[in-house]
């Protein structure tokens, strides 16, 4: 039960982060998209820093949820971020969310809830080795690079969709690394990792690297956000 509560709170924190980051990105010059100057400009905006703080809170809440719950339980619950984002965005930007939009959001949420009930997820027992981590990291990085490259060459809704997919891949892989990290932490002090397993230092380093994903470019180029 605690995993469910923490996962929903993580979804709420991520929703607040998305809206605050979108609010900050709305005022950034259009010619700064996909440039380092965009990051520098956003770092001087209180709304963006507030979004980063909310994102960190969501990260910690998600880690807490993964400590007591499996990936198959926690990750589907994070879809609650979508309706919460719509509520917060509608209030902050003073816009009315159409019934069609709510129908789409409700259908997606209900579908994932049904999937969660049908799957009845239980914790797995297989421990990935170093080679598995290397291959999975390489594949994920390659897919991210492809999405971002095609997004840069595209425009309009296609760019927003591709950057959203890239951000989703980054979040998903971060969740996998986070789960592995919280499993290592109880035995990290004074104990060596078992043969064929990564030490407790490696997943956190990769998780930190995975946090360098594409949320700023995703929200900056979204054509459906209010301006």
Would you mind describing this structure in some detail?
The protein is an all-alpha fold and 227 residues long. The chain has 10 helices and no strands. It has helices spanning 2-26, 36-43, 46-68, 71-77, 81-92, 99-119, 130-153, 156-184, 202-210, 215-221. Helix 1 packs across helix 4. The protein is globular. It starts with a helix and ends in a 6-residue tail after the last helix.
Note the topology:
Elements: H1 2-26, H2 36-43, H3 46-68, H4 71-77, H5 81-92, H6 99-119, H7 130-153, H8 156-184, H9 202-210, H10 215-221
Q: Please state the oligomeric state of the protein chains shown.
A: single chain
Whole-angstrom Rg: 18 Å
User: Which sheet architecture does the biggest sheet show?
Assistant: none
- Uncertain stretches: 188-197, 212-227
Strand content: under 5%
User: Structural class per helix/strand content?
Assistant: mainly alpha
Q: How many β-strands, per DSSP?
A: 0
* Helical fraction: over 70%
Topology order in helix (H) and strand (E) letters: HHHHHHHHHH
Tally the helices. 10
Distance between the termini: 39 Å
Give the averaged pLDDT, no decimals.
Answer: 75
The coarse silhouette is globular
Quick tags:
mainly alpha; single chain; globular; 10 helices; 227 residues
Nutshell version of this structure?
By secondary structure, this protein is an all-alpha fold. Helix content is 73%, strand content 0%.
